[in-house]
């Protein structure tokens, strides 16, 4: 579609283009009869869900629990019914007034606009009649942005922890999926897991159906990891189709829901009818484009996965090739080339596939997918209209796609567009550098304030940044004492939500926290001195690392966990897995793109990590560091009694643990934070219990730099430090959140 040169006719031209655009993809062959007959229900018209929600919340705070639960549940089912009805009305009203469209192409003179108005009125009458058959007048009114925010963040489930514990646990889990940094809900879920009558089935996401494409995405990645290419093809194909369906669903809600004019184009503004019509139309198209971001954002994430659909197509064509479906691989690859027609890797792959097929791809029906071709064509036409609105109508639009071709962007906007792309490319290049800067605020090389402790390896010998290995932190007697404590008190699955084998089925994991050790000591089940030593070891580690890494601020315990991992006898032959996969402790590592997303469910508040080893009488179990590709090993550490490894928790230090193939490996894992609000409250509770018994222990307050006040950073309200990337690699997202 050509852009318009005559600015005097810009509004008329834009109006015509929008009408042609809106109907260039519609199928007008279905009959109009029966509109509205399929929506609604025998129980009556759909009411206003925001009123139900308000009333339910009011009942909750009045402690009318049964009434609150009923109204809150009804508000969610009513909202779903309303959205479903809107979508049905949208689909059933597509043909309304289509007989007027040819007039827009053939009518001369000054009456073409009357035909356009006639079409608009017929479409409006159809939608109004359809909705009126199923929805109350109040239910058709737009709800406030605050109410939409409540539902988009799943807040109704926050109130639904009522009644039977099984249902309460399900509500808590569903809320937590979208709010993984909600500490109170995390604690609630742990309490539910310990309650009698609560099974694992309760912890299912009730909103999973609306996010089905992510479940398919993860399932496809899992199949790839196990080289099950046939299953991977099936799941990637389903994932692509579901992503397209979710996008269409989102776009339908844009078209049938009330669209508000931008603030500068309100009813009291100075614009005329055409200006307001253009502004409303552009607002609609902008909503369509925003669906790309909405569908590409996982629950609980703030940032979207860039290039979600092209990424899926890339995975699909590779899986099809490896599964032997060359025709399907070519078709998927040609679909991918609609997004990136000059991508060298894709063109090279196409040449390989074509040669493998004997050069005759047409005989195998290898044209691009019609659905993808329609998606790209529709999106490009939307972008042309939106960029025209940016250039000439002062409309604000943020393009959600990296694949947008430069020719779509008007000449006057290209410099800004290129600059933004260049910034993005520079960020991506920085992520690929072999030598990386660590922004943690730690600076290795400080003194070691404990007699007998030696620096065995530093940054140079460990081939990294802010890494250290210290020996002599514990003597053999102390190691034996803590090993005896672990044998007596460690519980299978402790610290792993009861999972005995959280990382590999070939090993059993047992753990013990300081608080549990204190309680067992109070009950006389373990020695008081052994529990105190476990606590004191953590203080010793913090003092050493705070000094060595020259922390400029307070350093608080974030978590302390004594963990033993034992090889399961008779289940070690042919093992190729790791005891703990490669991960980063405070962000989600994406090896193929070399990005690390500092956002939930990673423990983003962790700043410094440490592991203090207790024994070496086992096989395997070595700690190793890698490059961001999670493959290139940069350093290895063999455990032994009293050996301490410390490192900054960020993306410069991906690490993992090799398989424990014989014996039992025990170590104390510790994490520290500079943010006081994320300190380990369990540790402080243990210290309080000791104080109540008149026991003397070193308090777990913050370690401060000499002569400097320790300060805590402001509380975070969302994700920080994340990066956008093209994310077209075949890497799996992994997160470091368990023990070393």
Automatic annotation (TrEMBL):
Residues 560-674 form the Fe2OG dioxygenase domain. It is an enzyme of class 1 (oxidoreductase). GO terms for biological process: collagen metabolic process. GO terms for cellular component: endoplasmic reticulum. InterPro entries: Leprecan_dom, Oxoglu/Fe-dep_dioxygenase_dom, P3H, Pro_4_hyd_alph, Pro_4_hyd_alph_FE2OG_OXY, TPR-like_helical_dom_sf. Residues 716-726 have a biased composition (Low complexity). Gene3D superfamilies: q2cbj1_9rhob like domain. Keywords: Dioxygenase, Endoplasmic reticulum, Glycoprotein, Iron, Metal-binding, Oxidoreductase, Repeat, Signal, TPR repeat, Vitamin C. Its cofactor is Fe cation; L-ascorbate. Its EC number is 1.14.11.7. GO terms for molecular function: iron ion binding; L-ascorbic acid binding; procollagen-proline 3-dioxygenase activity. SUPFAM superfamilies: TPR-like. Residues 683-740 are annotated as: Disordered. Belongs to the leprecan family. This is procollagen-proline 3-dioxygenase. It comes from Salvelinus namaycush (Lake trout). The gene is LOC120047544.
């Amino acid at each position: 579609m050509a852009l318009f040169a005559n600015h005097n006719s810009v509004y008329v031209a834009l109006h015509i283009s929008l009408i042609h655009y809106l109907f260039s993809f519609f199928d007008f062959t279905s009959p109009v009869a029966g509109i509205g007959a399929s929506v609604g229900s025998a129980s009556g018209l759909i009411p206003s869900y925001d009123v139900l929600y308000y009333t339910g919340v009011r009942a909750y705070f009045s402690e009318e629990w049964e009434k609150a639960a009923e109204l809150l549940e009804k508000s969610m089912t009513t909202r779903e019914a309303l959205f479903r009805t809107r979508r049905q009305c949208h689909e059933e009203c597509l043909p309304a007034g289509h007989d007027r469209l040819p007039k827009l192409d053939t009518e001369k003179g000054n009456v073409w606009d009357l035909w356009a108005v006639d079409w608009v009125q017929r479409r409006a009458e159809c939608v109004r009649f359809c909705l009126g058959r199923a929805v109350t007048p109040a239910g058709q009114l737009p709800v406030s942005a605050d109410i939409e925010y409540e539902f988009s963040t799943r807040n109704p489930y926050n109130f639904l922890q009522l009644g039977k514990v099984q249902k309460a646990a399900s509500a808590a889990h569903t809320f937590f999926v979208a709010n993984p940094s909600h500490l109170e809900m995390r604690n609630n879920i742990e309490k539910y897991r310990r309650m009698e009558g609560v099974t694992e089935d309760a912890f299912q996401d009730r909103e999973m159906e609306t996010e089905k494409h992510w479940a398919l995405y993860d399932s496809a990645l899992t199949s790839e990891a196990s080289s099950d290419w046939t299953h991977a093809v099936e799941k990637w194909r389903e994932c692509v189709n579901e992503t397209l369906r979710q996008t269409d669903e989102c776009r339908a809600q844009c078209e049938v829901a009330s669209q508000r004019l931008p603030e500068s184009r309100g009813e009291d503004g100075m614009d005329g009818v055409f200006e307001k019509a253009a502004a409303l139309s552009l607002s609609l198209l902008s909503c369509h484009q925003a669906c790309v971001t909405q569908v590409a954002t996982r629950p609980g994430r703030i940032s979207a996965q860039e290039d979600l659909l092209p990424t899926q197509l890339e995975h699909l064509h590779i899986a099809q090739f490896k599964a032997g479906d060359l025709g399907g691989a070519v078709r998927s690859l040609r679909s991918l080339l609609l997004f990136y027609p000059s991508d060298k890797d894709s063109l090279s792959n196409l040449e390989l596939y074509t040669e493998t097929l004997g050069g005759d791809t047409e005989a195998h029906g290898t044209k691009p997918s019609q659905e993808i071709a329609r998606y790209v064509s529709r999106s490009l036409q939307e972008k042309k209209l939106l960029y025209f609105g940016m250039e000439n109508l002062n409309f604000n639009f943020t393009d959600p796609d990296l694949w947008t071709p430069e020719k779509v962007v008007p000449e006057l906007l290209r410099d800004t567009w290129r600059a933004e792309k260049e910034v993005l490319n520079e960020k991506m290049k920085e992520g690929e550098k072999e030598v990386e800067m660590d922004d943690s605020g730690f600076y290795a090389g400080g003194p070691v304030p404990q007699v007998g402790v030696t620096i065995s390896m530093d940054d140079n010998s460990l081939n990294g940044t802010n890494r250290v290995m210290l020996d002599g932190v514990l003597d053999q007697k102390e190691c034996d004492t803590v090993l005896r404590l672990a044998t007596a008190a460690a519980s299978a699955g402790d610290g792993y939500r009861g999972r005995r084998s959280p990382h590999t089925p070939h090993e059993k994991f047992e753990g013990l926290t300081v608080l549990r050790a204190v309680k067992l000591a109070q009950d006389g089940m373990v020695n008081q001195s052994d529990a105190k030593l476990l606590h004191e070891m953590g203080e010793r580690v913090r003092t050493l690392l705070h000094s060595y890494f020259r922390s400029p601020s307070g350093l608080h315990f974030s978590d302390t966990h004594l963990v033993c991992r034992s090889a399961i006898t008779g289940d070690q032959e042919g093992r190729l897995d790791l005891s703990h996969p490669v991960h980063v402790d405070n962000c989600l590592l994406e090896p193929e793109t070399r990005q690390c997303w500092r956002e939930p469910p990673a423990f983003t508040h962790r700043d410094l990590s440490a592991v203090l080893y207790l024994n070496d009488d086992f096989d395997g179990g070595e700690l190793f560091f890698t490059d961001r590709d999670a493959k290139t090993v940069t350093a290895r550490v063999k455990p032994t009694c009293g050996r301490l490894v410390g490192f900054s928790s960020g993306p410069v230090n991906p690490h993992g643990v090799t398989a424990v193939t014989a014996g039992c490996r025990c170590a104390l894992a510790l994490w520290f934070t500079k943010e006081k609000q994320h300190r380990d409250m369990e540790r402080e509770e243990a210290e309080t219990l000791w104080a109540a018994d008149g026991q003397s222990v070193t308090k777990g307050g913050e370690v401060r730099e000499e002569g400097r006040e320790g300060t805590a950073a402001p509380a975070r309200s969302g994700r920080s430090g994340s990066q956008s990337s093209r994310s077209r690699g075949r890497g799996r997202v992994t997160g470091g959140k368990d023990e070393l």
